[in-house]
Amino acid sequence: MMKNRFDKSVPIALVMLLFSSVPVIAQFVVHNNGANVAVTSGCIVTIVTGDLDNDAGSIDNAGRITVQGNLTNNDVLTGAGGSTGIFNVSGNWFNNSIFSADQSLVNLNGGNQLVAGSAVSSFYNVIILGNGIKTLGIDAEVQGTLQLNNLQLATGVNTLRVLNPSSSAITENGGFVSSLGSGRLSWAMNSTNAYVFPLGSSVGTLRIRPLAIKPSTATQNTFAVRMANVNATAEGFDVNETAPELCFVNNQFYHQIDHVSGSDAADLTQYFVPANDGNWANGAHWQGTSQWEDMGNEVVGTIGGYSTITNLGWTDFNQPGFILANALPDVSISAVAPLCASASPVSLQALPSGGSFFGVGVSNGVFSPAFAGVGLHTVSYVYQDGFGCENTAQIQIEVNQAPVLTITSNNNGSLQLCTGETLTLTASSGFTNYQWSNSQQTPSITVNSSGQFSVTATAANGCVSTSVLANVTVQPAPTPSVTANGPIAFCEGESVTLSTATGQGSYLWSGTGSTTANTVVLQSGTYSVTVTNQFGCQGVSNPITVDVIPQDDAIILENGNDLTVSPQGTGYQWFLNGDPIPGATGIDYTAIQSGNYHVEYIGPNGCPTSTDILEFTLQVGVDEYSVFDVLDVYPNPGKGEFTIRGMMPTMEDVTIELTNMLGQSLQPSVKVNNTNNFTRPMDISKYANGVYFIRITAGDSKVTVRYLKS
After folding, report:
1. Beta bridge partners of 621
2. What's the CATH class of domain 332-400?
3. CATH code matching the domain that covers 407-475, chosen among 2.40.50, 1.10.10, 2.60.40, 3.40.1350
4. CA-based Rg of the chain, rounded to a whole angstrom?
5. Residue 450 in contact with residue 535, Cβ under 8 Å?
6. What is the C-alpha to C-alpha distance for residues 611 and 604, in angstroms, rounded to an integer?
7. DSSP assignment letter at 235
8. For 488-526, how does the pLDDT look when each residue is reduced to its tens digit (9 = 90+)?
9. Which of 158, 252, 334, 470 has the smallest number of CB atoms closer than 10 Å to its CB?
10. What topology does CATH give the domain 622-709?
11. Residue pLDDT, tens place only, 556-601
């Protein structure tokens, strides 16, 4: 790299001329290797895109030196005495030797810039310009003013000391000073003005949270502060360790304050933004007992766009931690004198208002000695403030013995009655001077309407007892109505459904015992339903009379193979073995085969009816033998007792034989001689049910008839 060397032997005037008239435009480093260089007032030296290294010698600046690169001082760099020199530096500032600021101004007007070196730079006036973050790599001092504008000055773990005791020595327009660890912004003070430290941090969530210190006297004091943009627990100040008077502390950021010199008390003001930081009403200090404690003497206010908490006259700076906090609300509850158990409820009083009372016998802020009972009772008052902090105060209330006055009813203790009923309320015995809420003065009263009833009476010990309210309720009785879903006069075998509305309660039907909202009726009678609602009240419906017309007793009469229905009716249909016989729709039918016959028809009463089953055996062969004019066996089928009747045109000898299905004779044959008209009873009832055969012989004619015993 090309170097421009200012030799000690070069006349100062020539050096000044070169600086003032020939700006350096190439990228290079301008070295002073031992010359005494003076930039006089009005003289401008600009090093474009290059660095200035004062390796040896001195540079006195009463004019303006602009370095668009780094400025490094390894020997002597001054502001030229009482003159106001200006240093415009766009790069880093390195001071490794002597920098006498005098009345000079240093403009840090680049991007991210570092103030570092092996020697502390004691600036006079400093203006933060350009953009980016200006960072200290070593401690630094400002004797005049520090103008932050809208930029961040990061001290890191170093300290920036403002030695000017004016409360306006630091100005900003949104700019702030940030620090880490042991880093601080220090300010010497000699007035009772409020010194506002523009503190902030871009680590994590960007926050600018100033801190103001207002000393109590105008003596010399120095305070060094830092805003820690972290949960204080991470730095050894556990936010969960709080004194009993505190509810909770800020877990987003806190401040560290060192009282470097002096001993005055000071008002400390912490700034916060409620929308981002929450609401706070207290300041807290970390104590040697390793906990946060309320600082007291808080004043709540606002400054600009900030809310503030100011703790007046603070003196304890043995520990550096200060934080926003919310204290538990100051809660108190007024004492209550001893009460008789029969005394009226007492309204409880507590401050601040808006909390809740708890304890035996407490309801809605009222203590009821009757409900609490005899003894010593703890009543608590719990209050929660707008910050969500909750505190409790307690008192003891003594309740002396007082008999309990109760009300009972003659309805098994129930206070409900149905419309039209009465209820007797009875007060406890052993009292005098009964006074009911309805003005009656007897131990018992009778009521028939809804209402709240109580009684007051005097016990033997003089305590006046009042019962709890007896809430008597008259409940409506149900009024069920019954309807039928069809005719209520019908034939036997049919039915009608009687119904009432659902959802009325429980049901009980007369005549059927049904317990639902409807019942099926099959028999004649008068029916109604009793409904019991949820209150135990009953109502009986209108009665409905049902007339069931019984079926006629219908039979089939036999005359040989001729069958007749009795009694007469209409709409006949004959059936054989369960199947209808086509065309057999009259009152008579001549059977042409054996089988089970029955008839369905409309009886004389107009109801469908059906005869019993007739097990019929067809009588055959009579017409085939001219010897018999009539031959009949009846009844057939039967139970074993039957009659054989025959008629013939001539006199004949007749023989009757009875056999089973195997042809075995069951009885000796019966003979009737020389007859043309015979009737003969027979009895085989002692034999098993089944089919038997009757053989009748007359002359040369033989007829066999099948008989069915059932």
Report:
1. none
2. mainly beta
3. 2.60.40
4. 62
5. no
6. 13
7. G
8. 999 988 899 999 999 999 999 998 999 999 999 999 999
9. 334
10. Immunoglobulin-like (2.60.40)
11. 998 877 899 999 999 999 999 999 998 889 999 878 777 899 999 9
